[in-house]
Design brief:
Largest sheet: none
Structural class: mainly alpha
Distance between the termini: 54 Å
CATH superfamily of the largest domain: Tetracycline Repressor, domain 2
Radius of gyration: 19 Å
CATH class of the largest domain: Mainly Alpha
Number of helices: 10
CATH architecture of the largest domain: Orthogonal Bundle
Number of domains: 2
Length: 195
């Protein structure tokens, strides 16, 4: 049992070291040897967990998606009204990205990279399926406009990306007032006017 915990710790160390180095050096500037050196392990140890750098990055991508979805549902109350639940998900996501800028940059840089596999993209969609189901619930119950699902996602996720990028590029903190006003504006963009 103890050996499994040690292995998991090394795997986590490899993933976190890779994330940090990729954010500084990019994909091509981060060889396995650099990851091993910065993690203070042998390169062979990395190959025990991952077949190659592409597999390592794909697993890191999935791991970060899991962290994002867990953060989004923090404090989420399924019994609350739809608008309240919407705001919780939206505010939690932008707060997570603000608190974890390296993960935000990683996801944005590698989202459409050719080395991110079709299986990884499918797994990413599976991980995010509770959010997709949330939007389908909103459409079905006429809480939100009857638009294609990816139009709704664009109207909601686009402002999050833009605000976090502006925050990072200009090194200014987003206040909770700014975040809540933006959440309100996004809600206004997608809410069904009949409700």
């Amino acid at each position: 049992m103890e050996q499994v915990i040690i292995k998991q710790d090394k795997k986590t160390l490899i993933l976190n070291t890779t994330l940090r180095l990729l954010s500084k050096n990019g994909f091509h500037g981060t060889p396995i040897s650099m990851i091993a050196e910065n993690a203070s392990i042998g390169a062979g140890t990395i190959y025990r967990y991952f077949k190659n750098k592409e597999e390592l990055i794909n697993e890191l991508f999935i791991e970060i998606k899991k962290r994002i979805i867990n953060a989004m549902y923090e404090g989420y109350d399924e019994t609350a009204d739809y608008e309240t639940r919407f705001r919780v998900l939206w505010v939690n996501m932008i707060n997570y990205y603000n608190d974890n800028p390296t993960e935000f940059v990683f996801i944005e840089q590698h989202r459409y990279a050719p080395y991110v596999s079709t299986l990884t993209r499918a797994e990413s969609n599976r991980i995010l399926s509770p959010v997709l189901l949330f939007f389908l619930e909103g459409k079905k119950n006429k809480y939100i406009k009857h638009l294609p699902l990816y139009t709704i996602i664009g109207l909601i996720y686009g402002p999050i990306i833009t605000m976090v990028k502006l925050h990072l590029d200009h090194n200014k903190n987003l206040t909770s007032i700014q975040i809540n006003k933006a959440a309100e504006a996004c809600w206004d963009a997608v809410k069904c006017n009949n409700k």
